[in-house]
Structures are given as C-alpha cells and as structure tokens.
Amino acid sequence: MILPQSSAPLAGDWGYDRPMTNALDDFARDKLAAIEAATLTRRLKPTVRQAGGGVRRGPSRLLSFCDNDYLGLSQHPALKRAAMDATERFGAGAGASRLVTGDNPLYQALEARLARIKGTEAAIVFGSGYLANIGIIPTLVGADDLIVADELVHACLHAGARLARAEILLFRHNDAEDCQRLLGLARRNHRHCLILTEGVFSMDGDRAPVAALGAAARAHDAWLLVDDAHALGVINGGRGSGFTDGERLPVELQMGTLSKAVGAYGGYLAASRPVIELIVNRARSLIYTTALPPGTLAAAEKGLELIESDPGLVAKPVARARAFTQALNLPAAVSAIVPLILGDEARALDAADRLAQRGFLVTAIRPPTVPDGSSRLRFTFSAEHREEDVAALAEAVRALGLGAP
Ligand SMILES: Cc1ncc(COP(=O)(O)O)c(C=O)c1O
Asked: What pTM was estimated for this model as a whole?
C-alpha cells in the first residue's frame, strides 16, 4: 500500500477528505513551545561510542562521563565475539515471543547464571529493564493492594505501579522510618503490599537502606522489590545491593537490567521459582513481545561471566568515582554515579556545554527526570576511565567554579 504525502488529502474507501495532520501538528507545536519556554527541550544527538570511554559527536571527540557502561563491557572484544557467533548460529532476530518460538536455549544459560549471582532459585529475562518493571508490578499487585515507593524511584517503576491500579504512597527518599510509618497507616486496609526502591539511585548515586526496608517489609507483611539497574556489576563484588558481606538480604524481588554494567541489553527478575513461573504466565510485557535477539543474549551472558570472574574490574567504577569526589571535596561516592546539583536548567546546560568545550561529555539532567529545581550534571564513572582522566575532569569542573570550596 502506498500512503499519500502527509499534506495531501486522504480519500477513497476510508472517506477522509481533509488534510491529515493540521490539528495534530498544531497540538504538537504548542506542546513543544511550552517545553522550549521552560528550557526543557530534548534533542537526539547521533553519537558514536568507542572503546576507552571516547565518543564522537559530529566533529567533536569527547571523553564520556555520562553513560552507564560502568565496566566498558559494551565494547569488550569477548562480548562482541559472543554476539557475532550467536548471530551467525541463530540469526539476527528472535522471530517470535518467548512463549512461541523465541525461547532460544541461550536464555536458559543466562537465567541460570543470573539466579546464581543473585542467590535465588530462578530468574527470568525480559526485553528491557523498563519492560521488566511494567510487567512484574501489575503481575504481583492489583486494585485491592498497596504500593509504597521511594519518592525518587525511576519512571518505569512509577509506570508499573500505575498499571497495577493499586493505591500508591511515596515515602521520603531513602527514609526507611517514613516507609514504616506509611505501612503502619495504610497496610491493614489492603490485601497485598509491595515496597519499591532502587539499590543505587540512578540520578543521585546514593544507595537504599535495603536491610532496613527488608525489615519493614517483614514487620508489615509486605514484599520488597529492589531495582538494581545501577548496582549489578558495581556494588558488593558485582552481585548488587541485595547482599551485605556476601550474605543475602531479605529481598524477595531482585530486578535489574543487562544494559548498563553488563554491557548488552535486556532486563531481569531474580526470585523464587513460583514467582518466576507466575511471571511467565502473567507478565504481559514478557508474553506479548518478541524475544531478545540471540546475539544480545550471548553478549549478556558473557558480560555476567566477566563480572563474576574479575573482581578487580568490578571494583574500578566506584574507586574512580571516589577519586573524583575526593578531588572536589564532595561527599564520598558510594556508587559509580556522582550528581552535582545546580538547580536551574539553563545553568546545568551551560555547565555541560563548557565541559564539552574542554573535551568532556557530561549530560545535563533536567525535570521531569529529576524533581523541579534540581537540574544537575550527572557524572558516571567506568572501569575504562584512567586515573588521569578522572583527575583532568575534576580539574575542569573546578575551573568552572563548581564543586565544594
Ligand atoms: C533505575 C532504573 N530502572 C530501570 C531502568 C530501565 O532499564 P532499561 O534501560 O534496561 O530499560 C533504568 C534505566 O534505563 C533505570 O535507571
């Protein structure tokens, strides 16, 4: 079928005889004008990433301190090789959802490895971390239930919570006592209750009080889901935030992504076998979507293998982040993420521009990704960064008059 140009009238069988898009385009333009007026316009910028943390953007060559490839594994020869071999062997795409013909045996190996790392009976891999959260949450709680979430959890946890149609209460960021308070007030009026938090907060780099939230969950007959998107491969020897001194904390639902430190793509849930079987039977974002390409599964498994076998590599991102916070007299980093909150959108954009002029790529993060008035530079550190790269970045930040005195 050949569609007419958007400005030409659509006629014929469907009976449309007016130009197709005017009202819609006007609507979009008005919305965009409001976004622009608030200095919140987002633009795509073609970027070529390279090994070693370098990127090419148009004519510029920059050193990236803003991606989530914490171990540099997306560029690792072993992951590329694994992806190419699996593609050669099984094809470029999965061809169908997992429950039809997309369940390549590579999934089983990957899920067994995830379950081992996470110390759970089982694990399940989704198409992405976003798809995981919007599938897991509505599978486990519904309209009669309660969700108690940290006020700063990621957009996809909010999306999952809304899809669940449960009552949602937000506790003060990283405040387990406030979580207890809300549970004390509201838990008894609901059938089931799910607590949501992030192991490492994506925009703040701080870490949830997982043990205290686990205790709150126990005390109030609730289940705890920890999103470890920024913790797997980085925290606790790479196993994530569900552990302390090698011991598993009481977290029923360890969720995360394969697209950050693991260097590939996909999301996962590690949990008990009955929970995983329920997900396979009920999670819509697992059932009604095409399986991941075989090359991606193979790369993810290789990434996890490297994380399990190389503690020296895993220790580097936080060590680099600490060197940065020390150089700038900032509170010591506890993850690979260090925010520098500047408040105003224009100020954050200007600081990012000026760092780019000095060869550093650090994206300005603005609302609605972060709360109003807390626009920031979000620095992320990778095993690929050399100590001298971090020192040069700290020097550039100081030269802009940012950081602590
Ligand atoms: C905390 C958190 N959860 C989930 C996601 C989504 O993961 P994915 O990129 O695999 O969809 C992200 C980032 O993208 C994140 O920062």
From this structure: 0.93
